[in-house]
């Protein structure tokens, strides 16, 4: 499989915690993934499918996942500071946590780009400021 690169427009979102509750009628604890997370995972999946042309890494193949999370600079900052942000001299130190962004992308691509996210052998992830917010994602076979 050649590498598949795609973008996910919009503000980067992380994987939200599952909500667990007790169902009195079944007398069991149940967990549900928040709707926003499910919608975002489906959006990532759709964006991948639009460019992948059937690319899929089989069970035995290790995967490299590269993610760049791009954020807009805050409107309240000075022009000088905004320039520093856009040129990479200042990085975003804000939510969502990078591990939650990686998790939502990895889970969204399960069964679509690769059999299971346990195949991911290498993750490269970065947050930065940009004039256009979104995610840049690359999925490829790990080559060492």
What does this structure look like?
- By secondary structure, the chain is of the alpha+beta class.
- It has three helices and six strands.
- The strands form two sheets. Strands 1-6-4-5 form a four-stranded mixed β-sheet, with helices on one face. Strands 2-3 form a two-stranded antiparallel ribbon.
- Helix 1 crosses helix 3.
- The mean pLDDT is 93.
Which SSEs are present, and which pair or pack?
Blueprint: E1 4-9, E2 19-23, E3 28-32, H1 35-52, E4 63-71, H2 79-86, H3 98-108, E5 120-129, E6 134-141
Parallel strand pairs: 4-5
Antiparallel strand pairs: 1-6, 2-3, 4-6
Helix pairs in contact: 1-3
Percent strand equals 25-35%
Global outline:
globular
Question: What gap, in angstroms, lies between the N and C termini?
Answer: 15 Å
Radius of gyration: 17 Å
Structural class: alpha+beta
> How are the strands of the biggest sheet laid out side by side?
1-6-4-5
Portion in helices: 25-40%
Order of helices and strands: EEEHEHHEE
Largest sheet: 4 strands, mixed
Low-confidence stretches: none
The count of strands amounts to: 6
Task: Give the key terms.
two-stranded antiparallel ribbon, 3 helices, 6 strands, 144 residues
At a glance:
With 144 residues, the chain is an alpha+beta fold.
């Amino acid at each position: 499989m050649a590498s598949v690169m795609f973008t996910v427009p919009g503000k980067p979102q992380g994987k939200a915690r599952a909500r667990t509750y007790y169902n009195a009628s079944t007398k069991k604890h149940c967990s549900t993934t928040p709707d926003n997370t499910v919608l975002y995972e489906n959006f990532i999946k759709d964006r991948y499918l639009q460019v992948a042309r059937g690319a899929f890494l089989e069970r035995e193949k290790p995967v490299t996942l590269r993610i760049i999370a791009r954020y807009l600079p805050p409107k309240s900052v000075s022009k000088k500071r905004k320039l520093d942000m856009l040129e990479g001299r200042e990085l975003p130190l804000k939510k969502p946590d990078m591990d939650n962004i990686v998790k939502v992308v990895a889970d969204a691509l399960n069964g679509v780009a690769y059999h299971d996210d346990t195949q991911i052998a290498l993750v490269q992830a970065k947050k930065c400021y940009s004039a256009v917010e979104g995610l840049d994602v690359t999925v490829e076979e790990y080559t060492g």
